[in-house]
Amino acid sequence: MNLPSSSTTLANCTPKLGLLQRNTLGIESYAEQAIVISKSEQIPLLLQDIKAHGLPWQVLGGGSNVVLPSVLPGITLLIDIAGKEVLSSDRTETLIRVGAGEHWHDFVQWTLAQGFPGMENLALIPGTVGASPIQNIGAYGLEVAHFIENVQAFDTEKNGFVTLSNRECEFAYRDSYFKQNPNRFIITQVTFKLPKAWAPKLTYAELAKQFSNQSPTPLEIFNAVCAIRSSKLPDPKVLGNAGSFFQNPIVSEAQCTELANQYPAIVSFPDAVGQRKLAAGWLIDQCGFKGKRIGPVGVYDKQALVLVNYGGGSAQDILGLAKQIQDKVQETFGVQLQIEPNIF
Ligand SMILES: Cc1cc2nc3c(=O)[nH]c(=O)nc-3n(C[C@H](O)[C@H](O)[C@H](O)COP(=O)(O)OP(=O)(O)OC[C@H]3O[C@@H](n4cnc5c(N)ncnc54)[C@H](O)[C@@H]3O)c2cc1C
C-alpha cells in the first residue's frame, strides 16, 4: 500500500540496516532501525512516534563526517530529500532552494553549469547539502556560510518546521548553531544566495601559484580544486577516512609568537584580530605520526591531518589513535586538538 508521506511511523522502519557503505571511514556498523526520509512531511509524525516510545534517534547524511559505533541504537533517519529550485535571479543575485539530501559536489557542479559561479572552491567536499551548514564546511579560503541565505529544518524542541536566517545559524569556523545543539534540528532544505558579481578567490597558496598572471574562469578553478584535492586526500572508496580528523587550533598571537620562537618552521595563518590558526597537520607531522599505522587504522602518509581505516577498524581503534595524537601534541606544543567528525 502507498501511504501518504505524512503517515510515516516506526512501523515503516527497516531493522538492522548495514551502514558500512554509508560511512566514509568504512566502519562496520549497523542501525538498529533505519528509515529513509525523502519528504520533509514524513518527519513530524515519525518524531512523535519515536518520542512516544522513548527511543534514541539520529540523523545520517552521506556519513562523511561521522565516527559510528558498531551498533547505532534506536532510529536512524537517512536524509534523502531531493530538489533544486531557482527561487529568483536578478541582476545582483540568485536564490536557490536545495533539498537536504542532494549531493554537495553535484550541487556545486550544477550551479556552475547554470551560470551561477561562486562556490567553485568548495568542489569535491563529500556529503550532502543538508549537512553543509552543520560544521559550516569550508576549503580553499571559502566557507559555505558565505552563501547561505537561510536553513529550513524541523525543530524537535518546538515540534515544528522553522527557518533560520544566516545570522541565526551562528556560523563560525567549523561550527554553527546546529552543531552547538546536537540532535535538535533535522535540516530539510537550504537556501543559497549567489551574488552575480564574481571574482576568483585565490588566497590559498596552491591556487594562487597555479593562476599567477592569469584570470581563471570559475570552471578552471573548480577543476583545479578537484585536481589538488584528489592528489592530497585519499578517496574514501579506496581508503576509509573522514577528511581532516582535527580542526586547526586557534591560538592567541602571543602564544603563536612563543611557539614560533621555539619552532621557527611552524605553520600558521591569520585568523580573527589577535588570533592565529595553526596547521594541525604540521603539529601532528612533527610528533612523528605521519604514515604511522596502529593495527587496522593509521595516519595518512601524505597528510597527517587525515586518519585512515585500512579495513576492519572500529570507532575504538580510530578514537584510540586520535587520543594518542592529541596527548602527544598537547605535551609537545601545549595545544589541544579538537576532533572534527561527529562521534555517535
Ligand atoms: C575525503 C573527505 C574530505 C573532506 N573535506 C572536507 C573539507 O574540505 N571541508 C569540510 O568542511 N569538510 C570536509 N569533509 C567532511 C565532510 O565532507 C563534511 O562535514 C560534510 O558536510 C558531511 O556531510 P554528510 O552528509 O556526509 O554528513 P554526515 O557525516 O552524515 O553527518 C555529519 C553530521 O551532520 C548531521 N547531519 C547530517 N545531515 C543532517 C541533516 N539533514 N539535518 C541535521 N543533521 C544532519 C549528522 O547527524 C552528523 O552529526 C571531508 C570528508 C571527507 C571524507
UniProtKB/TrEMBL annotation:
Belongs to the MurB family. Pfam families: FAD_binding_4, MurB_C. PROSITE patterns: FAD_PCMH (PS51387). The active site is at R174, S244 (proton donor), E340. It is found in: Cytoplasm. SUPFAM superfamilies: FAD-binding/transporter-associated domain-like, Uridine diphospho-N-Acetylenolpyruvylglucosamine reductase, MurB, C-terminal domain. It catalyses: UDP-N-acetyl-alpha-D-muramate + NADP(+) = UDP-N-acetyl-3-O-(1-carboxyvinyl)-alpha-D-glucosamine + NADPH + H(+). This is UDP-N-acetylenolpyruvoylglucosamine reductase. The keyword NADP applies. Cell wall formation. Its main location: cytoplasm. Its cofactor is FAD. Pathway: Cell wall biogenesis; peptidoglycan biosynthesis. Its EC number is 1.3.1.98. Keywords: Cell cycle, Cell division, Cell shape, Cell wall biogenesis/degradation, Cytoplasm, FAD, Flavoprotein, NADP, Oxidoreductase, Peptidoglycan synthesis. HAMAP family: MurB. It comes from the Bacteria. Residues 27-197 form the FAD-binding PCMH-type domain.
